[in-house]
Amino acid sequence: MVSMSSEQPLILVCNDDGIFSPGILALADVADEFGQVEIIAPDRQQSAVGHAITMSTPLRSRSFQIDGRFNGQAVTGTPADSVKLGHDQLLDRKPDLVVSGINHGSNAGINILYSGTVSAATEGTILGYSSIAFSCTDYDEDADLSGAKEAARRVIKYVLENGLPKGVTLNLNAPAGPLQGIRWARQANSRYVEEFEGRVDPHNESYYWMKGTMEVLDEAEDVDVKVLEKGYASLTPIQYDMTAYSLMKDVEDVEL
Ligand code: MN
């Protein structure tokens, strides 16, 4: 969706690590090369909240200057809340692009489903905007994001020039360090092997910490996880329409 006006493209930047994370500033830096940047993001860490929205409490937002260079609004809600509030209340005009990230940690494989970063971008798509999620596979906040930034530069340029089909979001993951290249990739079939560590609190009550690891069930070489292992950035078109189309023909004649 390229802006037809003479104004610069408006780019909404969101994430799930919170508005003060280094990754969102890295993405705002890249977006700034293409237009006017508005950062609207959760005021705190919101990783793995998926597409959650806030309905039982009000949302508030506070304006900040981020790094002295960008207008930022910190929202007391989730990544999806932030994009919805930006769209409906906080932005002066409709964005030409919604970008989310750069997340600190991989959003390949089944992570896509749990990810707040991806859900911010998906929410942008639902609202009718071209939207892209960006993640670096390295969880370290000091990781070298140069490759992820270069990948973001290339993908943002492509999407601003060409738009995206309705209902489709792009999900990019990049290894830390310089960019070797970008490969289109499917989402790897994968799941978490949930390992909880049980502990006991001072009141003798049990509690649990999740520390699951992702198990890849996919043998194919063209999936996001494998592409990343080879050192490339992976780019996956994803959709929020969860209909199992492959089954629709089979159930056509089933009477219930
Ligand atoms: Mn995160």
Notes on the protein architecture:
This protein has 256 residues and is of the alpha/beta class. The chain has one domain: 3-Layer(aba) Sandwich (Stationary-phase Survival Protein Sure Homolog, Chain: A), CATH 3.40.1210.10. Helix content is 26%, strand content 29%. The protein has a nine-stranded mixed beta sheet with strand order 3-4-2-1-5-6-7-13-8, sandwiched between helices. It has a two-stranded antiparallel ribbon with strand order 9-12. Helix 5 links the parallel strand 6 and strand 7. Helix 1 packs across helix 5 and helix 2 packs parallel to helix 4. The longest helix has 17 residues. The mean pLDDT is 96. Bound molecules: manganese (II) ion. Manganese (II) ion binds next to strand 5. The site of manganese (II) ion (MN) has 7 residues, from strand 5.
